[in-house]
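Next comes the chain:
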Amino acid sequence: MDEYKNYESLIEKYVGKNIDTILKEQYSFIRYPFIDPGSVYKGNVWDWDSYWSVYALFDYMNRKDDPCLSKRVIEHAKGNVLNFLDHQLEDGYIPMMIEVRSEKEQEPYLNQKHKEGVLMNMHKPFLCQQIVLISEYIEDYEWIQFAQNQLELYFDCYNKNYFKDRSGLYVWCDDIMIGMDNDPASFGRPKFSTANIFLNSFMVMELDSMVKILTHMGNKQDSVKYLEQKNALIRSILEECWDPRDQFFYSVDVDIKTRKYDWFHQGLGAFWKTIPIRIRTWSGFLPMYAGFASAEQAEAMRKSYLDKSLFHSPYGVTTLAKNEKMFDLSATNNPSNWLGPIWVVANYIVFRAMMNYGYRREAEEICRNTLMLLGADLDESGTLHEYYDPFSGHPIMNGGFLNWNILSLNMCRELKETEKTENVKDYRSQM
């Protein structure tokens, strides 16, 4: 890693100089301080974006002895959560994004549409994860004690509107603001038809976080319910989303039923619960990140990462396999492009997935490639961008984007912590 040490230092200095661009103060009906991604995203409170910003900033603060900065980041991190809880509706719905569109509006646009009966997605499963992230960092859960009922309503809303009993999986309503904006497994498909591996893997972690929250609140009895839901969801993902033929985790189509017409289709019906949507995206690695993939599955996924016809790139992990017909590197916002460009959050998640299963060499490679990508961008442009070309490393769009780019520093620290220890379990020894 020594040859890339200069890039690590360069990125760290850049983060320090630009933290103020993402730490925002309350205004209008956004009543608490919050964090936005930077660049073109000004004044928006986003769900998973704010989580990853906090995740990265907490690690960054461990590098610094700056009590004032630490206090400020913690205040803004709590503000992310409090802003979303502040705009929870009576049925438990929480919007994916809070934006002040005009001075005349009194609540988020997404809440307005939900009240009108428009079906749409809700806050991605990062609310409880962010609460645990903050509470573990400050070693205190007291600040969120008031919210138990709200959090239960949040899960109730998910289970009522986005859970399919037959498959045991969660579905997106549509392709609006799903994180991986134009993931072909969901983008352009019918409403409530896709049980996305992204959504379900992170929901496993969200349920696990709810267990931790309730346990710290002294409510172990209720925590058992969420633990059972988590374990049931894992079983459904392993049964429905793992494709033994392709050795890959896929999103699946749940719109499966016998459609009878008059006297037709009276015999053997559609007894299968799902159909795999055989499109390889980086989110297939999420069961490794969440830690419930088997050792054999992890080894197959490792080979998919190394396959140069699929995800492997000199700058990290392509967000869509290169041999998919939808692979495209166009510069686009709304939706952002996840059809192949390098996103540092995807790099980090696959890095962490490899570390979880003892694949240190692959993790080191992803870290080096990410440092090279961002360091070269700083050398050439003086800033960081939202996503990058996987072949040239050139930025595609949105200079000034900070957010999860900071995760490049997390990779460096995590590798150094395990360099001379046996903290990373080598699952390959069990195969």
About this structure: Confidence is low (pLDDT under 50) at residues 422-431. The chain has three domains: 24-138, 162-257+271-279, 293-419.
